[in-house]
């Protein structure tokens, strides 16, 4: 065991991961769920399961607003669950109502990562809001999103590092065993 549980301090067992596409929410969520045995709720995956088509297809056929409605509907269902890790889509912060619900569920962790790293991770980019966009557009979009992640995150974790270090920091913050 790399981390040590602090005795007498309650563990955080309701966690919400937010951050830009490529910040590692899904990757970190899976690893953290495996390590802690907490259930993982991946909102993007649940939206795709509900719609029966991929996210790029949802955007293409029905548009962003329809995707956002599905996303908000799944969030309403998931916050009714008990303990667990919620892996959000990158745009969850676009709706204040999503964030109120998620705040009532648990601790919101912003996986913060510089744009340069995100872009290298998203080289094979299929995210509809970023696909085929020029760098100036992406920089401006990233800047607007950072303001929102900063606003809603209770805890900020640097995700511009290797995965074991991110997981170790999260386990320490959450005081999980
Ligand atoms: N700490 C890391 N170091 C190196 N590569 C990483 C790290 N975290 C994630 N990645 C890689 O970056 C890519 C994007 O990661 P991931 O899908 O987890 O991001 P995300 O935040 O869930 O994005 P989205 O909001 O689009 O769902 C994946 O290929 C993943 O393997
Ligand atoms: O940043 C966004 O708005 C998105 C991020 C992805 O996780 C998906 O939820 C979808 O591609 C929208
Ligand atoms: Mg993801």
Q: Secondary-structure map with pairings?
A:
Blueprint: E1 14-18, H1 25-36, E2 40-42, H2 43-51, H3 55-62, H4 64-78, E3 84-87, H5 96-105, E4 107-112, H6 115-121, H7 135-152, E5 155-158, H8 163-174
Parallel strand pairs: 1-3, 1-4, 2-3, 4-5
Bound molecules: adenosine-5'-triphosphate, (3R,4S,5R)-3,4,5-trihydroxycyclohex-1-ENE-1-carboxylic acid (SKM) and magnesium ion (MG).
Subcellular location: Cytoplasm
EC number: 2.7.1.71
Main location: cytoplasm
Write up what this structure looks like.
With 177 residues, the chain is α/β, with parallel strands linked by helices. The protein has helices spanning 25-36, 43-51, 55-62, 64-78, 96-105, 115-121, 135-152, 163-174, and strands at residues 14-18, 40-42, 84-87, 107-112, 155-158. A five-stranded parallel β-sheet has the order 2-3-1-4-5, sandwiched between helices. Belongs to the shikimate kinase family.
């Amino acid at each position: 065991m790399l981390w040590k549980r602090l005795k007498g301090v309650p563990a955080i067992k309701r966690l919400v991961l937010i951050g830009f596409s490529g910040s590692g929410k899904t990757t970190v969520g899976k690893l953290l769920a495996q390590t802690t045995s907490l259930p993982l709720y991946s909102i993007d995956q649940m939206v795709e399961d509900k719609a029966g088509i991929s996210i790029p297809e949802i955007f293409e056929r029905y548009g962003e607003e329809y995707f956002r409605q599905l996303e908000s509907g799944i969030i309403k269902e998931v916050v009714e669950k008990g303990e667990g890790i919620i892996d959000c889509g990158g745009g969850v912060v676009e709706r204040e109502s999503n964030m109120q619900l998620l705040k009532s569920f648990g601790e919101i962790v912003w996986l913060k990562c510089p744009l340069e790293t995100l872009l290298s991770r998203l080289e094979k980019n299929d995210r509809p809001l970023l696909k085929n966009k020029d760098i100036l557009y992406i920089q401006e979009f990233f800047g607007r999103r950072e303001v929102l992640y900063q606003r809603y995150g209770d805890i900020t974790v640097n995700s511009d590092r290797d995965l074991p270090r991110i997981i170790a920091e999260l386990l320490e913050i959450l005081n999980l065993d």
